[in-house]
Amino acid sequence: MPGIQVTIIWSGGKDTFFTGFKPNVDPGYADFQMEPGQRYQIELPGVETVGETPEVTIDDSTLCPELPTDVLPSWQVVFQQGVTG
Asked: Model confidence over 21-44: pLDDT tens digits?
């Protein structure tokens, strides 16, 4: 979905941005440049979520060992609207 606020929090920093600025990729697409060695928490302010806050860390244990050196690693985090009952 476009127009969803995303907040990334890490030790010593915080950034907020919105989905939808690259509709040719996907209406709900958003991107953020992460640095190796940091742990990032991903939140959707104003959206009630269930479960733990998603976290991403870039280090040797999370990288594909066959990744070519000229390719930047990427993660896809999917927030899915569900039905609770």
From this structure: 888 988 888 888 888 888 899 888
